[in-house]
Amino acid sequence: MDDIEKISKELNNLPEGWIVMLETTPEKMLEVSLSTIKFLSDEKNYIGIIVSASRPQKNLIQLYKQKKIDTKKILILDCISKSQSLDLEEASNVIYLESVSSLTNISLAITASIQQIPGDKFVFIDSINSMLIHNKPEVFAQFIHGILTKLRIGGINGLLISLDNETNKEIHAEIAQLCDRIVKI
Amino acid sequence: MLKDETKKSIEQAIQMDKHGVIIMIELPVNAYFEMNSSTIKLLTNQGFEGIYISFQRPFKNISSFFKSEGIDTSTILFVDAATALSGEQQNEDPRCIHISQALDIDELVKAIYLSLPKLKGQKKFIFIDSLTTISLYKPLSQIMRFSEFLMRTVRKENEENVILIFNVAKDLTQKKFIKDIAFHVDQVISVDNNG
Amino acid sequence: MDEKKSKQDTIFDMAKIKAGIENKLKGTDDKGYSTGGTLEQKTQQMHETKNEAKKGKKFVLTGISGFDELFENGIPKGSNILVAGGAGSGKTIFCLQTLEYHCSRGEKCFYMSFEESEKRLMEHMEDFGWNSKKLIESGNLKIKRYLPSDIHYVSEKGSDNAMFAKEEDSQLLQLEPVSLEEGFNPDFVVIDSLTAIASAFMGKEGSYRFYAERLFRFFENMGSTNYFITETGQMPETFSQTGVEEFLADGVIVLYNIKRENMRERAIEVLKMRGTKHQERIVAMKISEKGMVVYPKQEIFGEIHTK
Q1: Which residues of chain B make contact with C283, given a CB cutoff of 8 A?
Q2: Do the domain assignments include residue B14?
Q3: So what's the ipTM on this one?
Q4: φ, ψ of residue B78 in degrees (nearest 5)
Q5: Is the Cβ–Cβ distance between A45 and A72 less than 8 Å?
Q6: For residue C16, is it within any domain?
Q7: % helix / strand / coil in chain A, to the nearest 5?
Q8: Among residues C210, C252, C261, which one has the least CA distance to residue C230?
């Protein structure tokens, strides 16, 4: 079974309001992210709220277009561009947040996004490892717990992506135990 | 799903000829909650009524999952500390006690103390999920005080047969405070990736 | 799938959604309150609650988006409240915004400034779109600057410089710590700040403590609801100069400006408020172009205190 088939099979088998952690290798991470987003937005017709701590929106939009992902169904919460003093070009599906370490602000943005976007949606945190570079592990675990609880109460689907074996074991366990499923690609 | 071997270990533990049994169940993080709910199913199928204290997931999510697994939730009182921690609105439900956002340990203790007599059955359990999650928010001294309260409660001379279960992710069992608690339990059951 | 797809398409306009999200984040959403409803609706609701309040107690609101939701009913009318925080944490904005809310509703407000000039304070208000000139002309708002030399005990016969008065002098109990314009009985008063007053006493802590106590009693007897600004460190663990102010105050509101790597994150909490239930959490706060916005459901991630 190839990676895309595995992702679709796992996500298709879950009841609505699922929270899944994707674990993969550095080499596959980008492809896994893109394939998952494509599956959820094209096949499942979900609106995606992408919390990007790994790549600025400009790069992401390019990659989505290359992958033929409908960017009209994606809202990017860009945590990188502002803190890196990159060009903050106006885009209807991008909100620039202060930085990856501004967890309160990110939480507010996710909450506001969930409230404003109608219909079926998913929140994708990309990635655990990128966010841990900028945040203390225990604080980050609190943040994830808070976000996942909000998602559960709202019946909203959630995805987290992390690097296999690269994450602090204890924090990985704290976060993983909150998920409905761990999918290793 | 739990393997037969694991189920047997849990059954043996809960049937221990001892007043106030305390068990720690170590679970792999893969399918953590599924195995949690398998434990609850085992207990409720054996006629236990219980209090499920959740720091991890909100009541809404747990009860819908339990119902989908065929667990009789009418025999369980839930204490939802997770919703409080997230600051979200809490919907009223007769089976669920909501804790205030301050997540005062004393309030939690009071909630459990008041809930126990409401369980009418002969066999009772208190299920904690999980101490490591609440330790993200509260000082360890309060976590230890809470654990000690629970252990004292189930081992009280005049208290009816109550089983206390601490649920811990396997990768977190090396935390010092978990080791300290494990030292005081009657049995540690370790579940592998296959249940 | 096609039906579902077309349903998603017809109700979905990402640009509009993005604008809605950004308004919420900036606090420029007219709805403002996280529980929905306009400010007017919320005010009406809380006033109704106020009327039904137990023991005939009356409560007041601040009008600050999200902040009033931290209370069960509001702030008990006639309270003395410390507004504590470090430099740039938003204490002045908090107080000005509260006064603007009440002045706009025909209530009388008085801003006693021992720090900034009247002109400066009016400019602060204009920055947020609050028409300070109009409020002053209506007679609802008075802003007056005081100098340290103005700190006197006053009576009909004259005045004594408070800094030089001996605190043991029982005759001071017959005098008032401040004089207000005759006929002007404010409903709300801001004293900005106790720190400036304390520094004017030049090491005479005893005299300052006595004066502060008299000041609290004076405003308590006047029946106004009073906000006393006090400067603290950025991560305060004490909320007043001498500690006696916290003891005297009915309420303490703390504003934080928390350092996160190379950024600052704002937060607010109601540390204490006698006579009403309130949320006991530090929650997120922002200062937008329309003023202060509090997010009562949003906790702060990360350490607040230095210890």
Answers
A1: 87
A2: no
A3: 0.89
A4: -105, 140
A5: no
A6: no
A7: 45, 20, 35
A8: C252
CATH number of the domain that residue C239 is part of? 3.40.50.300
Band of the pLDDT at C305, cuts 50, 70, 90? low
- Taking contacts as CB-CB distances below 8 angstroms, the residues of chain B near A149 are 57-58, 82-83, 85-86, 88
Residue A22 — left, alpha, or beta (φ > 0 → left; ψ -120 to 50 → alpha)?
beta
Nearest CA of chain B to the CA of C194: how many Å?
30
Q: State how many domains chain A has.
A: 1
pLDDT tens digits for range A51-76: 999 999 999 999 999 999 999 999 99
Res. C14: pLDDT tops 70: yes
CA nearest B186: which of B21, B18, B6?
B21
Strands C291-299 and C283-288: antiparallel
Range of the domain at C228: 58-299
Residue B75 belongs to domain spanning: 4-8+20-86+106-190
Contact A104, C298 (CB under 8 A): yes
Token digits of residue A124: 């994708």
Are the C-beta atoms of residues A18 and A148 closer than 8 Å to each other?
no
Residue C130's nearest CA partner among C160, C88, C99 is C99
Q: Do C297 and B102 touch (CB under 8 A)?
A: no
Q: Which residues of C touch A72 (CB under 8 A)?
A: 12, 14
Residue of C nearest to B84 (CA): C297
Assigned domain for B151 exists: yes
pTM (predicted TM-score)? 0.87
